[in-house]
Structure formats: structure tokens, C-alpha cells
């Protein structure tokens, strides 16, 4: 029989919409076992404020989480101070990081099959004197891996990034042969392991307009990207490109592709978010664990209004469950 999937769901910034998005899950029966990693006191407080009749259950490792409508399993984390919805409190910063640590460690030791993260507020964590650049980098360090890859996905499109949060003036220097090789190998391997794609077909953008137009609009394609892709093709990685980004995101190319590899953040993500904002998922590749996240921020102005949309969270859970099942199948195949 297929082992039931258990996902840890971190509730994110207490003052934001994360806790109520988690509570919204209790409104329906669920296929995957969801364990909300948060302060139980916070979840009870937010349920009362929203007028939601949700029964919260203490969860312990080895116990199957509640999947019935009206019920939600919670793995309690200490340290969450009383907080007013929409108002940040630096005193909760360590608590937020503790939820991430507990969830990630639970994935590593097998208590969870993956983790889904509601949004955190990077600014308030840094204001508390804790250096924090985001979920991705935090989990990279915690898991001890050299390189991770950010990929956003909808049901129709997957876009991974060679570089992420860099000023445009620094992007060209950051696209080195070694970085491009690492990112492409991770993307190819994880499309196999976590998405069950036997031979991934990857489209690669150029950096410059018209992919450099033969060197007239930049030489990065000629000097770095094309030679590196040629080397990667020798490893039986199926790559097409570098292609002009302004025409790559069309059915002519996308209909025969499993993912797009874009050179920088605002080259690939505006297309994906226009196509599916609110139902997209942020995926971290290169980790030894499954990690998905929503595609939006803490939305402090919507906290406790009842107007928060859980569409992206539902997608993140659905994709996380799919990735966990694909990894289970891949592991079973390796052991057979």
C-alpha cells in the first residue's frame, strides 16, 4: 500500500494571513495529512477572531494527522507572543525561525514527507537582530547543501532561475559556467526525482535581448551560456537554447517543454505570475527534502479580515504531496 503523505505546514508570520490560511484548510476534508507547525495559542486566538469552529488536535510523531473537515492537527511551538493581526512584533522573530527549523528537521528525520511554508516577513526578523534573507537560504544552510534552485510553477508552466535576488548590474558576472552547470544539473535531477519526469525537456533563455543576436547585443551567450549548455548536453541533459526570452514563452516552445530555465528573476517570473498568480507555488530544488511555498507575501492589511485567498496554499500543498509521492516511488524503485 502507498504510505500516507504527511506534510508540515509552517504558519509563517503571526501578524499576517498565514495562520488564517492554515485554518481555512479545516473547512474541507483533505487527502494529505497536514500538520500545522505553529503556536497552538496563536491558532486558537485567530480562530476565535475569525469566528471559525475548528477543533485543534495536538500532534506527536507517529500519529496520523486529522483529515476530517472541522479538524486540524497542530505541532505546538513555544515562543509566540500575543500579537494583533496586521501589527508586526519583533519578539516573534525567533519563534518564526523555530517553526521552520522544527519542520525541516522533521522532514530530515522522516516525521514529515515534506514541508509547505506560509509567508514570513523578512524585515521584522532582521529588525530583531537576526540575519535572515529568506526561506530558501535558511533551509539551504540548515540542510547543509552548496546550491539550491528557486522554481515557481503553475499547473501549466515551471520556471527555474539561474540567479535570484540580485541587482541587474550584478547578474552577468554571476552567470558563470560553474553556476549554470550546478543549477541545470539540480533542475534536471529534481524534475526526475520529485516530478517523475523520466527525461526532462528544458528550455534555456539567453541573457540579452534576442539572445545576444550573434554577439551584437552582448557576448554572454557566445562566451558562457552556449559552451556550457553544450557540455551539459554531453551528460544526456535535454536542453534547448539559449533562446530569446521574448519569444520563448509561447506555445510553439512551451508545448514541448517540462521547464524553463531563466537567467534572472524578472526575466522569467513576471510571465509565470501573469499566467497564474494566486495559484502558483514556489519550490526549492536542491534540498534533500520537499519544500513548497505560496507565491505571495504576508498581506498584513488582509490579516483577520476573512478576505485572504488560500488558492496558492492549496496549490503548494497539492504540489508538495505530488513531489513526496514521486520521491517515494523513486526511492522504492532504487530499493527494488
Automatic annotation (TrEMBL):
Cellular localization per UniProt: Cytoplasm
Annotated signal sequence range: none
Function according to Swiss-Prot or TrEMBL: Catalyzes the NAD(P)-dependent oxidation of 4-(phosphooxy)-L-threonine (HTP) into 2-amino-3-oxo-4-(phosphooxy)butyric acid which spontaneously decarboxylates to form 3-amino-2-oxopropyl phosphate (AHAP).
Principal subcellular localisation of the protein: cytoplasm
Residues that, per the record, bind substrate: 135-136, 273, 282, 291
EC number in record: 1.1.1.262
The protein's name: 4-hydroxythreonine-4-phosphate dehydrogenase
Family to which the UniProt record says this protein belongs: Belongs to the PdxA family.
Something else known: The active site is located at the dimer interface.
Residues annotated to bind a divalent metal cation: 165, 210, 265
Summary of subunit composition and partner proteins: Homodimer.
Catalytic activity: 4-(phosphooxy)-L-threonine + NAD(+) = 3-amino-2-oxopropyl phosphate + CO2 + NADH
Record-linked InterPro entries: PdxA, PdxA_fam
Keywords of this entry: Cobalt, Cytoplasm, Magnesium, Metal-binding, NAD, NADP, Oxidoreductase, Pyridoxine biosynthesis, Zinc
Gene source species: Marinobacter litoralis
Keyword Iron-sulfur carried by entry: no
GO BP term (any one): pyridoxine biosynthetic process
Cofactor: binding comment: Binds 1 divalent metal cation per subunit. Can use ions such as Zn(2+), Mg(2+) or Co(2+).
Needed cofactors: Zn(2+); Mg(2+); Co(2+)
Single GO MF annotation: magnesium ion binding
NCBIfam families the UniProt entry points to: pdxA (TIGR00557)
The keyword Transmembrane helix appears for this protein: no
CC per GO annotation: cytoplasm
Top EC class for this record: oxidoreductase
Amino acid at each position: 500500500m502507498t504510505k500516507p503523505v504527511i506534510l508540515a505546514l509552517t504558519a509563517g508570520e503571526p501578524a499576517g494571513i498565514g495562520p488564517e490560511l492554515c485554518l481555512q484548510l479545516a473547512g474541507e476534508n483533505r487527502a494529505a495529512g497536514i500538520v500545522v507547525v505553529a503556536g497552538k495559542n496563536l491558532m486558537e486566538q485567530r480562530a476565535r477572531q475569525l469566528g471559525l469552529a475548528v477543533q485543534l488536535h495536538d500532534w506527536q510523531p507517529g500519529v496520523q494527522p486529522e483529515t476530517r473537515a472541522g479538524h486540524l492537527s497542530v505541532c505546538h511551538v513555544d515562543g509566540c507572543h500575543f500579537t494583533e493581526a496586521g501589527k508586526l512584533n519583533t519578539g516573534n522573530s525567533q519563534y518564526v525561525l523555530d517553526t521552520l527549523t522544527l519542520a525541516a528537521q522533521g522532514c530530515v528525520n522522516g516525521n514529515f514527507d515534506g514541508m509547505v511554508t506560509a509567508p514570513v516577513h523578512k524585515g521584522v526578523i532582521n529588525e530583531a537582530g537576526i540575519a535572515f534573507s529568506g526561506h530558501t537560504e535558511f533551509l539551504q544552510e540548515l540542510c547543509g547543501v552548496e546550491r539550491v534552485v528557486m522554481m515557481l510553477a503553475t499547473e501549466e508552466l515551471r520556471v527555474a532561475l539561474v540567479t535570484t535576488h540580485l541587482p541587474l548590474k550584478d547578474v552577468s558576472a554571476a552567470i558563470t559556467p560553474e553556476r549554470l552547470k550546478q543549477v541545470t544539473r539540480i533542475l534536471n535531477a529534481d524534475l526526475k526525482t520529485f516530478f517523475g519526469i523520466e527525461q526532462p525537456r528544458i528550455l534555456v533563455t539567453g541573457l540579452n535581448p534576442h539572445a545576444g543576436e550573434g554577439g551584437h547585443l552582448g557576448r554572454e551567450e557566445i562566451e558562457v551560456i552556449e559552451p556550457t549548455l553544450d557540455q551539459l548536453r554531453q551528460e544526456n541533459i535535454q536542453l534547448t537554447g539559449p533562446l530569446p526570452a521574448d519569444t520563448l514563452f509561447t506555445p510553439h516552445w512551451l508545448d514541448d517543454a517540462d521547464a524553463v530555465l531563466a537567467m534572472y528573476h524578472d526575466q522569467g517570473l513576471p510571465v509565470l505570475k501573469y499566467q497564474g498568480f494566486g495559484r502558483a507555488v514556489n519550490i526549492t530544488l536542491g534540498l534533500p527534502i520537499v519544500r513548497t511555498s505560496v507565491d505571495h507575501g504576508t498581506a498584513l492589511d488582509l490579516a483577520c479580515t476573512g478576505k485572504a485567498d488560500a488558492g496558492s496554499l492549496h496549490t503548494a500543498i497539492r504540489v508538495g504531496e505530488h513531489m513526496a509521492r514521486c520521491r517515494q516511488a523513486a526511492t522504492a524503485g532504487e530499493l527494488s
